[in-house]
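Hey Z.,

So I finally got round to the flavin-adenine dinucleotide thing we talked about over coffee. Here's the setup:
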Amino acid sequence: MWFRRDLRTADNPALLAALSDGPTLPLFVLDPALWEPSGLPRRSYLVDSLRALRRDVPVSVLRGDPVRQVVLAAQEVGATSVHVAADYGPYGRRRDEAVEEALRDAGIELVRTGSPYAVAPDRVVNGSDQPYKVFTPFSKAWAAHGWRDPAGALPGDARWRHLKDTVDLPDVDLPDGIDLPEAGESAATDAWHEFLDKLADYDDARDKPGVAGTSRMSHHLKYGEIHPRTILADLAGRQGKGAATYRNEIAWREFYADVLFQRPDSARDYLRTEFATMQYDDPGPDLDAWKDGRTGFPIVDAGMRQLRSIGWMHNRVRMITASFLVKDLHVEWQHGARHFLQWLVDGDLASNNHGWQWTAGSGTDAAPYFRVFNPTSQGRKFDPSAAYVKQWVPELADVDDPHEPSSEDRKKVGYPEPVVDHKAERQEALDRYAAIKG
Ligand SMILES: Cc1cc2nc3c(=O)[nH]c(=O)nc-3n(C[C@H](O)[C@H](O)[C@H](O)COP(=O)(O)OP(=O)(O)OC[C@H]3O[C@@H](n4cnc5c(N)ncnc54)[C@H](O)[C@@H]3O)c2cc1C
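And the result:
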């Protein structure tokens, strides 16, 4: 069983399929092609998650190109098949095809069972057998398609194989002051059960960054410490707006995975190609101010500082900070997406890059480009008590108006003046958009 993004024992059909074949070697390969570009928070979280998995499953760890390592590991234990959950990302697909071929040459079969999604990409299609390009019809067809019930627990009599030589899990040194969530299947299950008690309030609370109203399940889902099928099965028995809204958010995750599967180029390039011809500014000191949370726009700075402090940012603020970079600073979304992936523990190519494209106006189902977020009024609307701004920009805790401090207050507490004039930049963004609209 080659684990990748499925670091759990429960509801893990690929693991059950492996065990039904006989004694199983649980394997994880530290792949430099994935490890190197991951930021420190994600590396650290992955190692913690593997350590947690090892409490239940004796995972052997190797380092190197999976094409070589998986074949060598399978040969060492005399395996006739290697079991995985299918990966639908652009890199994962290429890697798995190469591994499959190398295994085949060695007389070993690669068996794909399940995926990180309730409904795997490419399954939800319209009446003409085409993928959906817009979320709402996708989500309806996705719900109508349905999903399997969760698979069972790990059997008590599971028998394991080991490799002779494995590598130690590396220790990852995190920057000072960063505080990551607890990793692992039991942390995921506990967090999910705790959230279920708050589900009734989710619909109201989810847009308020100053309230702990969302589930914080994204990193657990990213590493497969819990499967969305398990989550959907728990939601199925519950009525009310909270459950319906939450199911819809899971559908967004599945939609973006599907879009990325259909258009792997959209991980880097504009989904709506006309946006590639828009005029953008070269990234300069303003990009650094944005990254460091020093733009002088409190809600933007709060979000960017939250990201660096805990490897997570509230969804509403992801939209506000992303919009600010693209529409106020006129920097291309890819620069921001890269920074997010560097710091987010839940950093996921499909959800992140399509979240960015959505905000930039160039994505599927995108917010119309001309709807430019005003960071100050967004702050006032979604963080009315300024609890969020005060938490992450503590120098503003005692000023009269934390969402729009006076120049005098800014000077007094050492908080910067706004790096741009939002009104002027909004107009500039609209002018640049008008130029590509023709
Ligand atoms: C610019 C931008 C970048 C983003 N980058 C990522 C990313 O790298 N990884 C990631 O998992 N999510 C990303 N999101 C989506 C969303 O912000 C996070 O999933 C959410 O904030 C995670 O917190 P939560 O688990 O408490 O969310 P909840 O509100 O509790 O949502 C439950 C689950 O639904 C899914 N979900 C919710 N909203 C979205 C969405 N808009 N798109 C896709 N899935 C969603 C997530 O799996 C989430 O864990 C991004 C959004 C934007 C606007």
